[in-house]
Specification:
The complex is a heterodimer of chains A (about 240) and B (about 200). Chain A has about 240 residues and is α/β, with parallel strands linked by helices. Chain A folds into two domains: about 150 residues, P-loop containing nucleotide triphosphate hydrolases (Rossmann fold, 3-Layer(aba) Sandwich); about 70 residues. In chain A, the strands form two sheets. Chain A has a six-stranded mixed beta sheet. A four-stranded antiparallel beta sheet of chain A has the order 2-1-4-5, covered by helices on one side. The C terminus of chain A is likely disordered. Chain B is mostly helical and about 200 residues long. Chain B folds into two domains: about 80 residues, Winged helix-like DNA-binding domain superfamily/Winged helix DNA-binding domain (Arc Repressor Mutant, subunit A, Orthogonal Bundle), CATH 1.10.10; about 90 residues. Chain B has seven helices and two strands. A two-stranded antiparallel sheet of chain B has the order 1-2. In chain B, strand 1 and strand 2 form a beta hairpin. At the A-B interface, helix 7 and strand 10 of A face helix 6 and helix 7 of B. Bound molecules: adenosine-5'-diphosphate (ADP) and magnesium ion (MG). Adenosine-5'-diphosphate binds next to strand 2 and helix 1 of chain A. The site of magnesium ion has 3 residues of chain A, from helix 1.
């Protein structure tokens, strides 16, 4: 079974000498096509570090990071940035929407940066906004939307263009439970359609949407729940 | 759980026989608390003995049909208006287990907590899967579907609360360990220690 994301023995050390912080201490971790994996752990256990390294936004001190078979660590900056725009969708802990751009423009931006024509990028953006249920808000600016609507824009931006790996860091953070579940449903649907997803959350009821839940403590994986891959697939085929 | 009151509440709606009662009970509460038919018949016998229901003859197919009495109706009304006592044996067992784990020497409390968290998380994943399936299958119009989904919600809330409590226990134990470590490393606050003297062991 090919993993969309594969981390092998990854460490990340911040600072040097007495101020050294070991954020990750040898983590191996995979997410497969069609699978949503939740990552839980107390604050400071290394969840965000894990996600930024998986997304090519940060580099490990040692270890290997592969996305669809490509070694992110070995890539030059340019190619890594390209991977981030084409294969990896990232939903940040803060929303990170650009206030001066409409919802559609926010979603289209990564595609345009990737050299796509403005027109095609816009078409894809509208499709992604439709998928997350806010096609009618395409011309609104972030400030004129509710928190839940803004989060949907952020999800649309992460999934636009059939990205195969979706990484989400506390995407339901400031939302009420009901709205949060809606966001979870979107991630779940994307994974059911074949993407691999990694969801960082501190809410057990949100982690429960995942096929597997991985527990981090002090930069190591201490435990994991969930059916193994084969069972997950048969069950999905039965449903 | 009070099987007696649950069956009485069903009989209040209409007279039924044993298998029918079991089927109705499960239709409304899902398979969360399966009843065996023996349990149903023992309970019916007791309801009859206590004058809360009477066996009212057979239906066309020879089933013994029970119907509720006026005393039975009063009993159901009082059940619905009396709060359930706050006793939850499974949660209590966990609390007792943890209380003992932190006090009995040699127990790895972190592992006890993590194993429970994984087990409860796995159950929460199951409930969530059932909820999603129920939401996809049902048109939502059926009252019994709504009842089952409320029962699932209850299980979700329960599991969620348990995990939150385990997180809380872990955080408090960690804090306590850090404070103990600090207290042990700290010299007594009062008289400054003369240079060269052996460091005093702080005690709380
Ligand atoms: N840029 C940084 N410089 C120094 N330490 C950092 C940096 N980023 C994260 N850390 C430390 O690494 C550890 C893990 O952080 P993080 O991955 O953000 O945890 P989480 O997301 O689980 O709360 C923490 O102890 C944090 O203080
Ligand atoms: Mg974080």
């Amino acid at each position: 079974m090919n993993a969309v994301l594969q981390l092998t023995d990854v460490t990340r050390v911040h600072g040097t000498g007495a101020g050294e912080v070991h954020a990750l201490r040898g983590i191996s971790f995979a997410a497969h096509a069609g699978e949503l994996v939740a990552v839980m752990g107390p604050s400071g256990s290394g969840k965000s570090t894990l996600l930024t390294i998986a997304g090519g936004l940060d580099q490990p001190t040692s270890g290997a990071v592969r996305v669809e078979g490509t070694d992110l660590v070995g890539l030059g900056q340019q190619e890594r940035a390209r991977m981030r725009r084409t294969s990896i969708g990232y939903v940040f802990q803060g929303l990170n929407l650009i206030p001066a751009l409409t919802a559609a423009e926010n979603v289209a931006l990564p595609r345009e940066l990737d050299g796509m024509s403005v027109r095609t990028a816009r078409e894809e953006a509208l499709q992604a906004l439709e998928e997350v249920g806010i096609a009618d808000l395409a011309e609104r600016f972030p400030d004129d939307m509710s928190g839940g609507q803004q989060q949907r824009v952020a999800i649309a931006r992460a999934v636009v263009g059939e990205r195969r790996l979706i990484l989400a860091d506390e995407p339901t953070g400031a939302l009420d439970t009901e709205t949060g579940e809606g966001i979870l449903g979107l991630l779940r649907a994307r994974c059911d359609a074949g993407a691999a997803g990694v969801l960082v959350t501190h809410e057990a009821r949100h982690a429960a949407w995942a096929d597997r839940v991985v527990f981090l403590r002090d930069g190591v994986v201490v435990d994991e729940t969930g059916t193994d891959r084969v069972e997950v697939l048969t069950e999905r085929a039965d449903a | 759980m009070s099987v007696k009151h649950a069956l009485l509440a069903l009989l209040e709606q209409e007279p039924m026989y044993g298998y029918q009662l079991r089927a109705e009970f499960e239709r409304r509460t899902g398979t969360a608390w399966p009843l065996n038919v023996g349990q149903v018949y023992t309970t019916l016998t007791r309801l009859e003995r206590d004058g809360l229901a009477v066996a009212g003859g057979e239906d066309g197919e020879g089933h013994l049909v029970y119907r509720i009495t006026d005393d039975g109706r009063a009993e159901v009304a009082s059940w619905f208006t009396t709060p359930v006592a706050r006793t939850q044996p499974p949660r209590d067992e966990l609390a007792i287990k943890l209380a003992l784990a932190v006090t009995v020497p040699g127990v790895d409390v972190d592992t006890v907590i993590q194993q429970q968290r994984s087990a409860t998380m796995a159950a929460l994943q199951d409930y969530t899967r059932l909820k999603r399936r129920a939401a996809e299958a049902a048109d939502g119009a059926e009252r019994a579907d709504l009842a089952w989904s409320l029962v699932l919600d209850s299980l979700v809330f329960g599991a969620e609360a348990e995990i939150r409590w385990l997180d809380h226990c872990e955080a408090r134990l960690r804090r306590a360990a850090v404070e103990q470590g600090r207290a042990a490393a700290r010299p007594p606050a009062a008289a400054p220690r003369p240079v060269g003297e052996a460091p005093a062991r702080g005690a709380r």
